């Protein structure tokens, strides 16, 4: 499979080594290097040393700029960014003194003006680092991604006919009727939240619109309205075979109010057709109960599919040779385990939610003994999926423990080998040191072959000892 960004690994390595903090440190080093010649009388040797330090830092700036420009995903976009234009100024400015028009290409130290012009590097690099930091914070700040155009659909309980493309005014008319209906609102915007809040007389904060993709399954009650919060997930497969999958979450709200049930989603989840198909399959439940049952059933199917794909991924990781694992295996494995643990938590909350529906704590028109039996089946399914998620989490932790133990074993083996080499090497070093010391009666009355024999016997004995101790076994 072709990589989406083949230079990403190398770019990450360069960003790690030549980081903004490191470049700021280098720019601060330039302050004494550039100012000392003007405030203190230095010898020619000291001046040459400071000049070498200055140009070493300059070459590092050049290496940083050229490498990051070459490895950028979009080089032209990288080049024309304001802070990268500042980078270009930083690396070009020191070479101005060698332009023929300046007249400083002859021997001798650069002029005072050109030396002082190097000082803006300190301010420029500091400003660039601060700007990058602010940009990173803004990038990490939670943002609300609005969906596409809002789509409002209504399903009549008697005919099961779908009315597409309703306007907000038409929605208001539907809500004023006492007929049983299912209204689906997909791609709800902030303006839509305000309008829906006014129509249902439910304050906006109760919709938790900024957190609906992250909140766990639960039920909120506002006057005579029950808001059932649900969460679905999809697997994002990696671009490269050695990477691991991730999970994207999307939340939805099922609002139960009298004879109406309203499903609300902002983005990334649209189970309308699947739920409608399940509602059309007659099984003797009331319309509102059937729609809520269908929504919960489809949510469980999404969880089942999600756990199945994660299980396949865990098996693939377990069968992968250790040499083929990426360097950041532990980080990715911990991330995958965190995702599965969150699925476990969601399933636990979902089980509680279904139990509340069974105990009739969520008022539903048409809820009867048959409905209770069907929802009990759902609760059993949630329990089963929760056990699968627990097993997956345990398997991932086992993979992590195995990886850590193998790494520790290999590290201990390397340390043992180093200890053996050091112990054996100490013998000739010690004897050679003694023979080379200026002691009484030196040289000793020993021939070279005798010294070599003693060394060989001592080293062989030490090697034999380590073999018996098992330090040199494979």
- The tally of strands reads 7
Our estimate of the beta-strand percent is 5-15%
Q: Which sheet architecture does the biggest sheet show?
A: 7 strands, mixed
Domain tally: 3
What's the total helix number?
A: 14
Terminal CA distance reads 37 Å
What is the arithmetic mean of pLDDT? 78
Strand order across the biggest sheet? 2-1-3-7-6-5-4
Q: Indicate the radius of gyration in whole angstroms.
A: 35 Å
Poorly predicted ranges (pLDDT <50, ≥5 residues)?
102-110, 136-147
CATH homology-level superfamily of the largest domain: CorA soluble domain-like
Would you give an account of this structure?
By secondary structure, the chain is of the alpha+beta class. It has three domains: 8-140, Up-down Bundle (Four Helix Bundle (Hemerythrin (Met), subunit A)); 151-408, CorA soluble domain-like (Beta Polymerase, domain 2, 2-Layer Sandwich); 415-469. The chain has helices at 8-17, 20-39, 44-71, 75-80, 82-92, 112-117, 120-140, 168-176, 190-200, 272-280, 287-319, 329-358, 369-435, 448-469; strands at 151-156, 162-163, 181-186, 218-222, 225-236, 246-257, 260-265. It is flat. The two termini are 37 Å apart. 22% of the residues are buried.
């Amino acid at each position: 499979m072709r990589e989406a960004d083949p230079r990403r690994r190398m770019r990450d390595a360069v960003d790690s080594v030549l980081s903004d903090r490191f470049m700021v440190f280098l720019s601060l080093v330039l302050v004494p290097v550039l100012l000392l010649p003007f405030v203190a009388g230095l010898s020619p040797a000291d001046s040459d040393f400071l000049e070498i330090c200055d140009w070493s830092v300059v070459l590092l700036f050049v290496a940083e700029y050229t490498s990051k420009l070459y490895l950028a995903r979009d080089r032209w976009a990288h080049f024309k960014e304001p802070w990268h234009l500042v980078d270009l100024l930083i690396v070009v400015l020191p070479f101005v003194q060698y332009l023929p028009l300046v007249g400083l290409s002859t021997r001798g130290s650069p002029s005072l003006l050109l030396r002082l012009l190097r000082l803006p590097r300190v301010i420029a690099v500091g400003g660039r680092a601060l700007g990058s930091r602010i940009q990173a914070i803004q990038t990490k700040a939670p943002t609300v991604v609005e969906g596409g155009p809002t789509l409002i659909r209504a399903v009549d309980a008697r005919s099961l006919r779908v009315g597409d493309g309703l306007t907000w005014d038409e929605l208001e008319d539907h809500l004023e009727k006492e007929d049983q209906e299912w209204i689906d609102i997909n791609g709800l915007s902030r303006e839509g939240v305000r309008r829906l809040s006014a129509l249902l007389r439910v304050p906006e904060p109760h919709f938790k619109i900024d957190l609906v993709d992250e909140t766990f399954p639960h039920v909120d009650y506002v006057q005579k309205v029950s808001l059932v919060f649900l969460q679905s997930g999809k697997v994002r497969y990696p671009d490269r075979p050695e990477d691991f999958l991730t999970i994207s979450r999307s939340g939805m709200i099922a609002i139960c109010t009298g004879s109406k049930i309203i499903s609300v989603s902002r983005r990334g989840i649209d189970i309308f057709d699947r739920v409608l198909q399940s509602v059309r399959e007659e099984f003797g439940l009331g319309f509102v109960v059937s729609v809520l049952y269908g929504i919960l059933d489809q949510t469980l199917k999404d969880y089942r599919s999600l756990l199945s794909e994660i299980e396949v991924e865990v098996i693939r990781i377990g069968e992968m040779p250790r040499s083929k694992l990426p360097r950041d295996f532990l980080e990715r494995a911990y991330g995958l385990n965190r995702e599965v643990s969150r699925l476990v938590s969601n399933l636990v909350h979902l089980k509680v939610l279904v139990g509340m529906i069974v105990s009739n704590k969520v008022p539903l028109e048409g809820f009867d003994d048959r409905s209770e039996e069907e929802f009990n089946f759902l609760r059993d399914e949630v329990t089963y999926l929760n056990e699968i998620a627990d097993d997956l989490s345990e398997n991932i932790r086992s993979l992590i423990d195995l990886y850590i133990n193998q790494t520790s074993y290999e590290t201990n083996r390397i340390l043992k080998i180093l200890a053996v080499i050091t112990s054996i090497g100490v013998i000739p070093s010690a004897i050679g040191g003694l023979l080379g010391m200026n002691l009484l009666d030196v040289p000793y009355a020993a021939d070279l072959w005798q010294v070599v024999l003693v060394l060989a016997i001592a080293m062989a004995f030490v090697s034999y000892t380590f073999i018996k101790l098992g330090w040199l076994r494979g």
